Amino acid sequence: MKECLIAPSILSADFARLGEEVDNVLAAGADVVHFDVMDNHYVPNLTIGPMVCKALRNHGVTAPIDVHLMVSPVDRMIADFAEAGATYITFHPEASDHIDRSLQLIKSAGCKAGLVFNPATPLHYMDYVMDKLDVVLLMSVNPGFGGQSFIPATLDKLREARKKIDESGYDIRLEIDGGVKVDNIGEIYAAGADMFVAGSAIFNATDYKTVIDDMRAEIAKAGS
Ligand SMILES: O=C(CO)[C@@H](O)[C@H](O)COP(=O)(O)O
Ligand SMILES: [Fe+2]
């Protein structure tokens, strides 16, 4: 199993102090900044775009930025986010007319590419593009909002995705997003995830470091 990555979702950060919030959560031990892009079309909410990603880079953020695109169409956002400093760019297969082309665009822009699966989206979308994937992201809530509860059926889906990834022989991360907390991260890890997005669990806490440390301790406990 790979080193586990903790990726706080800045959707639950204080947007009025975003640079400071990102600095604080990285200083508290986060590995990756999860950046939720919503367009009020693919999902019923509207958030942030490439200018904010660029602003974080200009602010001095050097950690990987994991851009989760909840937009349709997908392709015209890819070059802008690559230019703005994205490390990972992931998108929902239903939102792209040409999944293979979107993945190729991400890779040729120099970013890591991934597909995102909603709770009811079947995993077979990954079958013919495994060679182009750096990450598979399973949503454990319906996309659009932070602070929702983890959908338990995602645990079986994680096991299924882990099996597909392992059998493929490719080096692909398995990311989970939605309702991840200290009290469920152990079973999520045991089901096969190695990259954990957590928004409200971290940013709604007074001490980010304690939450991140506790998450890592639960992962270590589940792995021993
Ligand atoms: O992509 C999304 C929601 O669509 C997520 O990244 C959420 O922002 C996660 O928030 P929590 O469920 O951890 O509060
Ligand atoms: Fe997300």
- Order of strands, main sheet, comes to 1-8-7-6-5-4-3-2
Question: What name does the CATH topology carry?
Answer: TIM Barrel
User: Which shape, going by the Cα principal axes?
Assistant: globular
Query: Pairing-aware structural class of the strands and helices?
Result: alpha/beta
- If you average the pLDDT, what whole number results? 98
Please write the string of helix (H) and strand (E) elements.
EHEHEHEHEEHEHEHH
- Going by CATH, the architecture would be Alpha-Beta Barrel
Q: CATH superfamily name? A: Aldolase class I
Structural domain tally: 1
Query: Low-confidence runs (pLDDT<50, min 5 residues)?
Result: none
Major sheet: 8 strands, parallel
Describe the protein:
The protein is 36% helix and 18% strand. It is an alpha/beta fold. The protein is globular, with a radius of gyration of 16 Å. Helix 3 packs parallel to helix 4 (99-108). It contains 8 helices and 8 strands. It has helices spanning 18-27, 50-59, 75-83, 99-108, 154-168, 185-190, 200-203, 208-223, and strands at residues 5-8, 33-38, 65-70, 88-91, 112-117, 135-139, 173-177, 195-198. It has an 8-stranded parallel β-sheet with strand order 1-8-7-6-5-4-3-2. The chain has one domain (5-223): Alpha-Beta Barrel (TIM Barrel), CATH 3.20.20.70. Bound molecules: 5-O-phosphono-D-xylulose and fe (ii) ion. The site of fe (ii) ion has 6 residues, from strand 2.
